[in-house]
Amino acid sequence: MTVSQQSKSTTGELKKALAPRTGLQPSEQLVTYKGRERKNSEFLDRFGVKNKSKLVVSEDPASLERRYIERQRNARIQNANRAIGAIALEVDKLADQVTSIEKSVSGGSKVAEVQITTLIELLMRHAVKLESIPADADTSSQKNLQAKRVQKCVEALDVLKVSNARLQTVLVTTKWETFDNSPPVTTKWEIFD
Fold this sequence. Notes:
Layout: H1 11-22, E1 29-33, E2 36-38, E3 56-59, H2 61-106, H3 113-132, H4 137-166
Helix pairs in contact: 2-3, 2-4, 3-4
């Protein structure tokens, strides 16, 4: 590609002019002339650039590495956010079950203890999953928020477990009692005037 530039321009100014054409920011470009990399502050005419001179513009390997590291970091953040989001959905479902148990126990209905214990175990599994998610500054607040939700649900279940144990079990049967000593049913009717 051909670029017109004043001979009194610096290499940095040349890089700025090349940025729209190359798609590389000036800090991502290396300009080489006669086998030597040129610094941004060097004037083109000072190192021998004349009309129709050929310069080599390439991508700085350090910028490639920085972009690679940034892509890796973004991918880690996205993966962490996805994992935290999936756990949040599961915790939502479990929190609904905790609310349902709270309503039952506060209404005087005894709940099977295994139901409370199972919910606690499921919540603790999610706490362990949350702990295993690597978090940096971008994801740590979301991770902490979900961990607090899990902890709050487990604490509520611990209190419900105690309240539930105090409730008496009510047994309802559908077997009807019959009385053998009852008077016989008659089908004769007497009429009184």
